[in-house]
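Long-time lurker. I teach an intro course on protein structure, and each term I like to show students one example going from raw sequence to a predicted 3D structure in token notation. This year I'd like something fresh instead of my usual example. Would anyone be willing to generate the tokens for the chain below so I can use it in lecture? Attribution to the forum is fine with me.
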Amino acid sequence: MKKVLLVGFLAGAFAVLAFHQALLHVLHHNWPWFAGLTGLPSGFRPAGSGFSLRPLPPFGVPAVVSAAFWGGLWGVLLAGLVRWLRLPDLLMGVVIGIAATFVGFTLVAELRGNAPWGGGDPMVWARALTLNIAFGWGAAFLMRPFGVGGNQR
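-- Reply from a regular --
Happy to contribute to a lecture. Here you go:
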């Protein structure tokens, strides 16, 4: 049990850095190339570039550290679902990414005083789902070598 919790937390925290924040960085800095490749409108481009060290209230923790911590907790949930309920790992990673988006659009938005449901902007929805699904899939993928996901049951 300890292994599943530890691997889940570490995989989730690292997936925030390696998948979520890295994709955010790539989308922000390589937008003309990416938009030309995919045909996405300019509204899809993220305003931030990822890996933000901006301190967040109330403790002044850098934004990327906070995101990695919460990603670790989502990773624990993912590892538990995959290991104990024997659900498909990569599919559950996508589901966790979708769930994280909904929590972000409701509970987190309320706590931060932001508009719920992304302000109803479809580009905000698409961007958030893309980033969070990349995180969830990445976390599930990173758990595989440690016997938590994949075919190693």
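Some talking points for your students: The longest helix spans residues 2-29. Residues 2-146 form one domain.
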